[in-house]
Specification:
267 residues, alpha/beta, four-stranded mixed beta sheet, two-stranded antiparallel ribbon, 48% helix, 10% strand
C-alpha cells in the first residue's frame, strides 16, 4: 500500500513538472492596455483573440524575462508576449520547445561575432543587433527596436521555430500534411530569385537582408507574412501559401498591411 502511494505521488509530481506552471491571466484592464499598444490585435477575429490570450498567458508563465539596463515593466512583457505568440497562434506555445529566457536590452546591442567566409578567412567583429535568437535560447531583444517595429520579435521567434529540427536553416519542423519537397523547392526558388535580383543591381522585392541565408529569408518572409501579407502574397505567392499552411493563418484576409510600431504616447 505504501509503495503504491509513493508511486502515485511520484507519477503526479512528474506530470506536474512536465506540465510546467499554469498560464498567467491578463485581466480586462491589462488586456485593454495591450490592445492600445499592439496594432495587430485590432485585425484579429474574436476567435483568434481568445486563442491569443491563452497563448500569451502560456508564454508569460513559461518564459523568464531578464532585463539588462532597463526596468522592464509588466506591460512591456505583455507586448513582447503578444508579438511572440502571433506565429504560434495555431501551432501552440510548445512549438517554442524548451528554451526559457528572453533577454531585453534598452537599445540596440552589440554582440561579438566570429565567422569564416567562403575563402576560409576568419573574421571577428562587433555587429549592432536589434534581436538575436540562439538555437536553444535565449532570445535577445532591444526594447527601442520593438517600440519602433514589433515585427523584430516575430523575426527572432521564427528563428526559434526554425531551430526545431536541430539547426537554423530555413526548414522548421513541418506538419505531417505538408510535403517537405514543396517547402524546399518554393523557398529555394524564391531565395535564388532574390539573390539574382541583388546581383543584377535590381530593386529587391523584399528586405535584402533576407538574401543573407535561407534562415534569414524565412524570418524576413515571416515578418512580411504577418504584417505585409498582401504584398508578400503578390510578389512571392508560393512562399505566402507555404507559410499560410505552416502557421495555419491567412493574414491577407485581416488586412493587406498592418502597422507594427507602438502608437505614439503608449510607450
Amino acid at each position: 500500500m505504501l509503495n503504491d502511494l509513493r508511486t502515485l505521488f511520484d507519477d503526479l509530481g512528474k506530470r506536474l513538472r512536465l506540465a510546467g506552471p499554469g498560464p498567467i491571466v491578463l485581466d480586462d484592464h491589462q488586456w485593454q492596455a495591450l490592445e492600445a499598444r499592439v496594432p495587430f490585435l485590432a485585425a484579429l477575429s474574436t476567435e483568434e483573440i481568445a486563442i491569443l490570450r491563452e497563448r500569451i498567458g502560456e508564454f508569460l508563465a513559461a518564459k523568464h524575462f531578464v532585463a539588462i539596463g532597463l526596468d522592464l515593466q509588466p506591460w512591456q512583457r505583455h507586448v513582447i508576449a503578444a508579438y511572440a505568440c502571433l506565429p504560434v497562434l495555431h501551432l501552440g506555445t510548445r512549438a517554442y520547445r524548451e528554451w526559457k529566457t528572453v533577454i531585453v536590452y534598452p537599445d540596440t546591442f552589440t554582440p561579438e561575432q566570429e565567422w569564416v567566409d567562403d575563402a576560409g578567412v576568419h573574421h571577428h567583429a562587433v555587429v549592432p543587433q536589434a534581436g538575436e535568437a540562439w538555437e536553444r535560447g535565449p532570445v535577445v531583444l532591444s526594447w527601442n527596436d520593438i517600440a519602433a517595429d514589433g515585427a523584430v520579435i516575430v523575426h527572432e521567434m521564427t528563428h526559434t521555430l526554425d531551430a526545431g529540427n536541430g539547426d537554423v536553416n530555413g526548414f522548421p519542423p513541418l506538419p505531417a500534411r505538408m510535403p517537405a519537397t514543396a517547402w524546399t523547392e518554393t523557398f529555394s526558388a524564391a531565395f535564388e530569385q532574390l539573390n539574382d535580383a541583388i546581383e543584377r543591381d535590381e530593386e529587391p522585392l523584399i528586405d535584402p537582408y533576407a538574401a543573407t541565408d535561407p534562415a534569414e529569408f524565412l524570418a524576413v518572409a515571416s515578418e512580411y507574412f504577418f504584417f505585409s501579407p498582401g504584398y508578400l502574397r503578390e510578389v512571392f505567392p508560393g512562399v505566402y501559401a507555404q507559410l499560410a499552411d505552416y502557421f495555419g493563418q491567412q493574414p491577407h484576409l485581416r488586412a493587406p498591411e498592418i502597422e507594427t510600431g507602438l502608437p505614439e504616447g503608449t510607450n
